[in-house]
Structure formats: C-alpha cells, structure tokens
Amino acid sequence: MENERFARMQKTTRLHLGMEATETLQRLTDFPDQPKAMDYFYDFFRRTFADGLTLPPRPAEQKVIGTMCLQVPDELIVAAGAKPLRLCSGAYAFDQVGAEMLPAKSCPLVRATTGMLHANHPDWGRELAAVVIPTTCDQKKKCGEMIATMPYPVYNLEMPSTKDSEASRLYWQESVKQFTLDLQGITGRKITARSLQAAITQGSAASALFRRLDDLRKSGGPVIFGKDIFLVTSGYFIDDPERWGNAVHHLITELEERKQAGLTVGNRAAPRLLLTGSPPIFPNLKVPILVEQSGGVIVADEVCSSNRLLSDGVAYDQVTLNDMVPAVADRALKPCTCPCLTPNHDRSRRLVELIRDRGIEGVVYQAFSGCLPYEMEQRQINTTLSGIGVPMLYLETDYSPEDQGQLATRIEAFIESIIARRRKK
Ligand code: SF4
Ligand code: SF4
C-alpha cells in the first residue's frame, strides 16, 4: 500500500517536472535574437528533465557526492575521484513533495531539495555516496536530519557563522581538513597533492571561462540575457565539466563575434539591472524571465547560483596538501556573501562594486518566502543602495507560478520608474 502510494507520487512528480521544465524552456526561448550557442543548454535541460530528473552519464566506478550549498569545496571531491553534484533544486514539482514533509513556512529551495531526494530515493540512495550539508542556514542543517532517514549518508560540514576573524578562518580550515580525510573513506580513494592540483586546475579553468562570459555583460549593448546566464550556471551544477566548458567556450566565441558586429539581444538601451538575493535555479527562473520580458536586462548578479559560483581561483604556493587544502578552504570562505554570515558587510561592498563597474541603474532583490536571512538583510542592503542613489525592488516570492501576474506588475512599474529617472537626468 505504502509502496503503491510512493510509486503514484513519483509518477505524478515526474510528469509535473517534465511539464514545468518544458514551460520554462518555452519562456526562455521566446525572446528575439537569441545566441545560437544557447541551444546546447536548452537541449541539455530538455533531456535532463524530460523524464523526472536523470543524473548525467559517468563511468560506472565513479562515486557521486551530492552537495547542498555553494560552500562545499568541489575541488576536494574531484581530487577524490568522485563527481560533485549540486543538489539545490529550483523545481516546483519537488517543492510540492517537500511541502508534505517540511513546515509550510520553510524556504522553497530547502523544500524542493528535500522533496527531490525523497522522490528519487530508491535510485539515488544507491547512487549518492554522501550528501554534504554545510552548517550555513538553519533550514539546510535541520532538513539534513530528515534526509538521513530516507536514508542517505549525510555529512555535515561545519561552517563558522562569521568570516571576519582569524579564529573563524582557522575553524573552517580545520573543518575542511577533516572533510578531506573523511572523503577518502567515503570514496575509497586517496587525495594526493597531484590529484588536488589537477582538481584545482579544472576548477580554475571553469572559473576563468565563466569570468570571460561574465565580462561580456560589463558594458555596451547587451549580448546575452541574464536569464540565459542563470541557465548556463544551473547547467554547471549537474553537467559533465568538460562538455559544459566546451559549450560555454562556443557561447563566448559567438558572443564576441556578435559584440564586434554590434549585435545585441533585445533593446540596446534597456535599463541595466542587477539581481541579488535567494538563488534562481532552473526551472525556477520566474523572476529573471519576468524582468527581461518587461524590458530590463540583467547585466550583473550577486547570487550563489551564478556570479558567486565561479569567481575566485585557489591561491597556493606549494604543491603539498598542507598548503593546498587550507587554500581551498579560503577560496570557499573569503568570497562568501551568504546572509548566513554575520556580519555580512562584504555583500554590500560587493554590490556597490558591481553597480559602479557595470553602470547598474536598479537592483532587483529576490527573497524566497521563508528565507529569513535574505528577508532580514534586505533593509541593510536597501540603506546602502539608497546611499548611492540606486533604486531597489524587493520581491518576496516562491516556486509556485501563482504570483507571476502580481510580480510582473511590480517589475514593469519599477522598470518604468528607472526610464523616468533617466529622462529627468
Ligand atoms: S543561499 Fe547561502 S546557504 Fe543557501 S545555498 Fe546559497 S550559499 Fe548556501
Ligand atoms: S534561500 Fe535562505 S533559507 Fe533557503 S537555503 Fe538559502 S539561505 Fe537557506
């Protein structure tokens, strides 16, 4: 009886997920002048979400380590011969499964990720050698207890609540050192200085590629929409790194050619916007799509599913584990601007830097209902932005499609107000 109910839920969830992904892809592609090279990413997500969520193919002996937050250093997982798989889910179909298990007031990202692991546990329970959860936000920490009962092997990676002291830095380094040792037990593979060096090189290559792509958004008429950037980075969560890298490389080549030829996507003079807050992850690209359907263009972001994902390299002096493991830990902690950290002045600093660097005319702040850290930090960010004369639109939203009409009205009014400001100037 219980098994039958589960099978029915799984079937319905797969169906809903396929429909949700198809609808998002339709909306993503319904824009003029799309770069041809984006087709790789549209096809990748079409395939991956067509029948539930299928894990990308990999060598049979390779273990998969699921990660539930950007703060997990992927380099160590790669150095241990395993595949890191970022589990943060943006799917409403999985959110609905998670809603049966978690409080109604919890964050949709946490609900969707828990729901995804539950709906897939008969297969993924065998496939995931560990689910790594950093002790960043309370909801992620607590849902780990539930995920462990599904059952998945859950590993808590201890994270400090601040990054501004030497003590917190050392605490995190110790935590990452312990993770390095434990990973060897989980994967049965020794991490050597050489394997870690190769993993760091792979991560740095992806970062460098993403930086080149991101740099193309810095100035001039827009050559790519922000909604497509979020799709590209969502692909990095699950795709094979080499295939992903090749596809990004093709995209950059096409965009450079288009830039030289003076071609843009959409309106050349569209208001230049920055998106910050809770992370947009496919298929939940509702806010970026609405912003760009309303005539704005997202030329920068400060979210852990995009800009913060690939922006910093690992700085080490010697090819020894003693030198490289703390350097990997620093690479993960130093640039972190997640509101789980207190204080989090670095986030305001980063936003001001991006605004000045990219000629930003307005900021869209997305907070998932139930995400207290992002909800609470919006006042502080608003004060900083008011101080430099940049307007901010605060949107509280979730994964359901129901608030689209109301969001669209507010976004359109915000964009019109930016155009009016321009005229006055
Ligand atoms: S919002 Fe913070 S806690 Fe959540 S996934 Fe991003 S970095 Fe991790
Ligand atoms: S969006 Fe907020 S509640 Fe959700 S995982 Fe990130 S920090 Fe935690």
SS strand fraction: 5-15%
Number of strands: 8
- The whole-angstrom Rg is 21 Å
What integer is the average pLDDT?
A: 95
How helical, in percent, are the residues? 55-70%
Bound ions, cofactors and other small molecules, one mention each: iron/sulfur cluster
- For the largest sheet, list the strands in their spatial order: 2-1-3-4
Q: Number of folding domains?
A: 1
Order of helices and strands: HHEHEHHHEHEHHHHEHEHHEHEH
Shape category: globular
The CA-CA distance between the termini, in Å, is: 68 Å
Low-confidence stretches at least 5 residues in length (pLDDT < 50)? none
Multimerization state: single chain
Give a quick set of tags describing it.
alpha/beta, four-stranded parallel beta sheet, 425 residues, single chain, 16 helices
